[in-house]
Design a protein that fits this description.
About 45% of the residues lie in helices and about 15% in strands. With about 110 residues, it is of the alpha+beta class. Strands 1-2-4-3 form a 4-stranded antiparallel sheet, covered by helices on one side. Helix 1 runs parallel beside helix 3. The longest helix is centred in the first third of the chain and has 24 residues. It is globular and about 45 Å long. The protein starts with a helix and ends with a helix.
């Protein structure tokens, strides 16, 4: 049992790392000048929907080759597009892993 302080602490870590990841992914410029973008501008805790310029399944497979599970392909859920994934960050994802995710995405689109 981690108590209220422990729960608050892991929530803060998840929130900060998820927002760091989202902000860094939105900075990535693609060869054609496009950028990755969040699908929704609303507030989020530790999950966000990312729009990418290729199919979600291709994106996931490219990152799986680097031992990264980037998120959930939303293609099979009504209302979502084929190029959207749900990305989740928790306290279990170290900042080094988050940075590795960012660097790997940059390599895919550079």
């Amino acid at each position: 049992y981690m108590g209220p302080y422990g729960l608050k602490r892991i929530a803060e870590i998840s929130l900060k790392r998820a927002h760091f990841l989202a902000e860094e992914l939105e900075k990535i410029s693609l060869k054609n000048g496009q950028k990755l973008k969040l699908s929704f501008s609303s507030y989020f805790f530790n999950e966000f929907v990312l729009e990418i310029p290729i199919s979600a399944s291709d994106f996931i497979n490219k990152l799986k080759d680097k031992n990264i599970l980037p998120g959930l392909d939303l293609n099979s859920i009504p209302g979502y597009k084929t190029n959207q994934i749900l990305v989740t960050v928790t306290e279990m994802n170290s900042i080094e892993q988050v940075k590795h995710f960012i660097d790997s995405v940059k390599k895919i689109f550079s």
